[in-house]
Amino acid sequence: MVLRGYVPTSEETLQTLAALRLQSLNSDFSTHAPFPRLEELFPPRVLHARLPPPRHRPPPKCRGARLRAGLLAGGLWGQALAKQRAERDQRLRGRLREEGASTMAAILEKWKLLQGMGRPEAMAAYVALVREWPGFGSTLFDVDLRVSALGAVPQRLWLGIGAKAVSLYKPGEPEPLDSFCYGRISSFGASDSSTFRLSVEDQDLLFETSQVDEIAQLLNTYLTSAGAQRPPRPQEPAATSPPAPPGPPQGLCPTPVSRPHRPPVGSFHS
């Protein structure tokens, strides 16, 4: 998750994590030590985020200009635009190499400072840094929120599945926008192959994602291990499900209450 960019922290901390990984793998710094590629130490998406966003040309407003642009697109102008795109891509690749070299140099400097640290100590320091994120232990999924009371839709978010709650994060932000304890979730499942539905009390959230099955299976695992009751099938009357206890203010989890284990019912897929 660190290498995929799913641990929101500073670049300084990410560089320290990379140095600790090197210390764990190779012990003290040495120019003769086997050296992993940068993408095996540092999240590539952080480097890509430093690059300037692509500039889009505004479409011509004049009808005659649009006609000329259409006629020339397949000829000389089309070739010129293709050349410009190739040159721009080459510049971006060069900039990416420069950013990568700068980051690698910073990681090496931090690695040199760890001389004498043993592998168990390096691993413990690595985990201690990652645990500083409040969402430590959650698995994050990229989703597009289609329906929500949180704001405009669609919205790109991280869906965090943890042992005690489901949380919504703005990508890169350490604190969740909202968290839903499993006691507040009335039902969930796959609306179709690319849409995951999550019903929280009186609101329905629809997420566009390519990992519908992975999300459902992980929720299933946590609910089963916790001995919680699964939600009813969508086609079953709502009365078949026991009423949920009154929920706390939105975004807060209630104090866990001991309850007898009940056999699971229903299905996670609609």
From TrEMBL:
Q: Extract the Pfam families matched here.
A: FERM_M, IRS
Coiled coil spans: none
Q: Biased composition, Pro residues: where in the chain?
A: 231-251
Q: In which organism is this protein found?
A: Pampusana beccarii (Western bronze ground-dove)
Top-rank taxon: Eukaryota
**Protein name stated in the entry:** MYO10 protein
Return the InterPro entries for the record: Actin_motor_Myosin (IPR051724), FERM/acyl-CoA-bd_prot_sf (IPR014352), FERM_2 (IPR035963), FERM_central (IPR019748), FERM_domain (IPR000299), IRS_PTB (IPR002404), PH-like_dom_sf (IPR011993)
FERM domain residues: 1-233
Region feature Disordered, mapped onto this chain: 226-270
